[in-house]
Amino acid sequence: MVEKKIVVRSQDTNQHRVLDRATRQRRLTRQLEALEKDNFQDDPHASLPQLAKRLPQFDESHESGKKRKKTRGDHFKQRFRKNFQALLEEENLSVSEGPNYLSACAESSKLPQRHFCAVCGFPSNYTCVSCGARYCCVRCLGTHHETRCLKWTV
Amino acid sequence: MTTLVLDNGAYTAKIGYSHEKVSVIPNCQFRSKTSRLKTFTASQLDEIKDPSGLFYILPFQKGYLVNWDVQRKVWDHLFGKEMFKVDFADTSIVITEPYFNFTSIQESMNEILNFKRSSGSLSAHRYFQENSSELCCIVVDSGFSFTHIVPYCRGKKMKDGICRLNVGGKLLTNHFKEIISYRQLHVMDETYVLNQVKEDVCYVSQDFYKDMEIAQLKGEDNTVMRDYVLPDFSAIKKGFCKPPEEMNFTGKYKSGEQILRLSNERFAVPEMLFHPSDIGIQEMGIPEALVNSVHNLPEEMQPHFFKNIVLTGGNTLFPGFRDRVYKEVRSLTPTDFDVSVVQPNNPICYSWEGGKLLSENPDFDEMVVTREDYEENGHFICEEKFDI
Ligand SMILES: Nc1ncnc2c1ncn2[C@@H]1O[C@H](COP(=O)(O)OP(=O)(O)OP(=O)(O)O)[C@@H](O)[C@H]1O
Ligand SMILES: [Mg+2]
Ligand SMILES: [Zn+2]
Ligand SMILES: [Zn+2]
């Protein structure tokens, strides 16, 4: 099934488009994933094509054929090139017993959800009808419509 | 035989021989747009004159070692002639690893290192040495990748009480960059600079909604607001806050300095540690999670944990952190329980100090896994000896 990015419920004007729950959730997930990123810019070495071959790239698995002194544990290098997600799946925790990485995660809070304006960060009492973002005043709502709201693709 | 203690954090390595001082060194590599031919490793960061736009290459992902190539380069640098000149035949290496470390990472580490513990267990060791009459303690380790809350009883960790919040200093800095970039100046590429701004100006609020009100006031009544002068790495090597008497409430300054105006960001960013749900991470904050964790432990032990709460890791250095934890834990526990929250002098190196003390322990030699042990018995021996 092909998922549509934005679901259009009512089409008279742009202002009346409403994002459905799944889309809102995807947006939040992408926002939270972005908070795990190491860098937002490109690798400064990536734009040097003729050098890229000679310089060790951090994703590259091996350096040139030069012989290095063999030290303790040298051979593990090749074995482990897995990212976090792959390692997690390999552990197969859903079927394991006792406390583990997944079960140790903090539960959700019993305290009520608090709301802050997506523009200025101050406490907010209103929700944008189109995308569910919070805002505190007409001015911030205006900024929100102009800058993010339906335009935003994180 | 000498011992080298290494708390191998995702952000910094805390490293030193057990008879010497500790050094805190970046556990990563860097690339700079001004020296486009070189990759800098760990302490070589000091060679970069202009770290704006600094590009990070980190060995860890979500707190777990995944990029071995980078880790090897950092370790080669740390252990090699540039720094600690380790003679492996005559040195035991004490290293930390995260809770619930993945099997394959553990096995790789066993091959090269003699002694592993979680940094929390080293902190607990440190705490029990100094407070020998206490039976229990609960360690909060809030570092770069995440925050762990781990109860220890007589030196043993209580696995059922371990709780992890997926909030650490990396998330705080990235969130900070995101809101500043949206509200005033594009700084998404300036992790290095903004991380420094975060450490310089952010604090943990003792009365969150009150501070929100103050941050909305105009002029001098707004005691939260700060103007931060960003470094340009030529005339201004390090950023700083304008002293209050020089602050100009219009925000306009004659000099060409680049200013960041900070108000609710100062306390809303560290607030993620207390209310992760504010940005949509549906997890308890530190005090609530701590109290919840203690409630999962045997009832007769519970009072002992509340009176031995130890704060470690870089985020606990935010001004107000300790007081806020105390205040909230206090309000969530029965009044006939004592609550005591200890903030060590150096919460970043507290576990390293624990490792140092451990290596001075008379039984230490029996706890390490030597090369011969390992070759004879394989991972099995490590599993037996290392209670992470
Ligand atoms: N004075 C300070 N105020 C606020 N935060 C700080 C301060 N000093 C360091 N930090 C933050 O603490 C974090 C690093 O903490 P720490 O050294 O405990 O982590 P780590 O051990 O390297 O990582 P981990 O434990 O996740 O593997 C960084 O995000 C850094 O910005
Ligand atoms: Mg740490
Ligand atoms: Zn607003
Ligand atoms: Zn909207």
TrEMBL record, chain A:
Quote the biased-composition stretches of kind Basic residues, using this chain's numbering: 65-75
Q: Which UniProt keywords apply?
A: Metal-binding, Zinc, Zinc-finger
Q: GO biological process: any one? A: chromatin remodeling
On whether Zinc is a keyword of this UniProt record, the answer is yes
Residue span of region Disordered: 51-75
**What protein does this entry describe?**
HIT-type domain-containing protein
Single GO cellular component term: nucleus
InterPro entries to which the protein is assigned, alphabetical: Vps71/ZNHIT1, Znf_HIT
Pinpoint the HIT-type domain residues. 117-149
Q: Which GO terms describe its molecular function?
A: zinc ion binding
Q: Does this entry carry the keyword Metal-binding?
A: yes
Automatic annotation (TrEMBL), chain B:
Going by the UniProt record, its keywords in alphabetical order are: Cytoplasm, Cytoskeleton, Nucleus
Keyword check for Nucleus: yes
The reply to whether Nucleus figures as a keyword in the UniProt entry is yes
Q: What is its main location?
A: cytoplasm
Cellular compartment(s): Cytoplasm, Cytoskeleton; Nucleus
Per the record, what is one GO cellular component?
cytoskeleton
Q: Which family does it belong to?
A: Belongs to the actin family. ARP6 subfamily.
What is the recorded name of this protein? Answer: Actin-related protein 6
